[in-house]
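Supplementary Methods, section 5.1.

A reviewer requested that the exact input to the structure prediction be made available. We therefore reproduce it here, unchanged from the version used in the analyses.
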Amino acid sequence: MTRQVLVLLMLLSPLSWAEPMQNLESLSDLKWKNRLILIEADQQIQHYQDELDRLDADIVDRDIAWFIVNDKDVISNFNGKLSDSAADEIRQTLQSHSSAVLLIGKDGGIKATETQLILDELFGEIDRIPMRQQELQSR
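The structure derived from this sequence is encoded token-by-token as follows.
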């Protein structure tokens, strides 16, 4: 009897219904699903992460996946495993645009390049995008 109850609890557990963790092989895997904020940080990784975590509700509301990178680490709110090739792609994308912060739209296009992370400005940029305006109207 106890075993049956345990099995029933496992089946009803939210964890058993959660989406399986994905592997991110390329930024294109997120196309049409998420807006991306890519941030290059040398010593300020924790500062940036704290700022992003503080505004998590706004980030979730705008379907943002963010990635903070330096020479050796990548920190992200992406719920899955980031491949080495995806981490390299993030670094190369930032370097090719000579920017510390990039905003990439759901369509994969570069929407903003910035020298520093100012989330209110990025949120404003996102909120002016026609796709975002459609999302807000359909609520």
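The longest helix spans residues 84-96. These observations are discussed further in the main text.
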